[in-house]
Amino acid sequence: MSIVERLLEDSKEIWETFYTHPFVQGIGSGSLDHEKFKYYMIQDYLYLIDYAKVFAVGAAKAFDKDTMREFSAYTDSLMNGEMEIHRSYMKRLGITEEEAEHCPAALDNISYTSYMLRIAYEGGPADVMAAILSCALSYEEIACRLKAQYPGCWEHPFFGEWVSGYISEEYHEANQKLIALMERLADGFDERQIARLSEVFKNCSRYEAAFWDMGWEMKK
Ligand SMILES: Cc1ncc(CN)c(N)n1
């Protein structure tokens, strides 16, 4: 079993809750209240700014130039790629970037990004990757499952853009590179070290579940 397979296996019960979550199901069926989606979008925009910083810390912690390049490239693709989906939605929802950046972050949001940043600052590059991976991989899996369950959801006039972004070849390829980087950084790790990575990945998966709850309940 590869390292990433092991991380996924140890967190699979938590991941199952993502697919049936009412917020996620609402995106797939198209029935999600737009106010809830708007709240989530703003929170996620704020989240991604800090998430990009986790990659930047990864670049600073890297032991070699190739790893440094990979972490920095992802920082850039987040700011100019994934966040474009958010900017496009914010435009449609009538929120400026400045307004979004001045919205108070929800406590579950702050807790999640603070945890990732703490792991990144305290640990090595493999820990940084373990903190990053649940976020990156879970959205691809969620969007693919939604497409299988609701075949037309990626063309939905409102939620389709969200689904399309996370089922895209581009997002998939970026994730494959992250998986390869995780495997490379943890190469030769013993059971104690792998268990540590799994704990970080699991905690981030728990935070992912809390983030869906935050969106659904519009928790401050
Ligand atoms: C909270 C959260 N988790 C994951 C993703 C997908 N990168 C995201 N945009 N936001």
UniProtKB/TrEMBL annotation:
<protein>
    <recommendedName>
        <fullName>Aminopyrimidine aminohydrolase</fullName>
        <ecNumber>3.5.99.2</ecNumber>
    </recommendedName>
</protein>
<dbReference type="InterPro" id="IPR050967">
    <property type="entry name" value="Thiamine_Salvage_TenA"/>
</dbReference>
<dbReference type="InterPro" id="IPR016084">
    <property type="entry name" value="Haem_Oase-like_multi-hlx"/>
</dbReference>
<dbReference type="GO" id="GO:0050334">
    <property type="term" value="F:thiaminase activity"/>
</dbReference>
<feature type="domain" description="Thiaminase-2/PQQC">
    <location>
        <begin position="12"/>
        <end position="217"/>
    </location>
</feature>
<comment type="similarity">
    <text>Belongs to the TenA family.</text>
</comment>
<dbReference type="InterPro" id="IPR027574">
    <property type="entry name" value="Thiaminase_II"/>
</dbReference>
<dbReference type="GO" id="GO:0009228">
    <property type="term" value="P:thiamine biosynthetic process"/>
</dbReference>
<dbReference type="Pfam" id="PF03070">
    <property type="entry name" value="TENA_THI-4"/>
</dbReference>
<dbReference type="InterPro" id="IPR004305">
    <property type="entry name" value="Thiaminase-2/PQQC"/>
</dbReference>
<comment type="pathway">
    <text>Cofactor biosynthesis; thiamine diphosphate biosynthesis.</text>
</comment>
<dbReference type="GO" id="GO:0005829">
    <property type="term" value="C:cytosol"/>
</dbReference>
<keyword id="KW-0784">Thiamine biosynthesis</keyword>
<comment type="subunit">
    <text>Homotetramer.</text>
</comment>
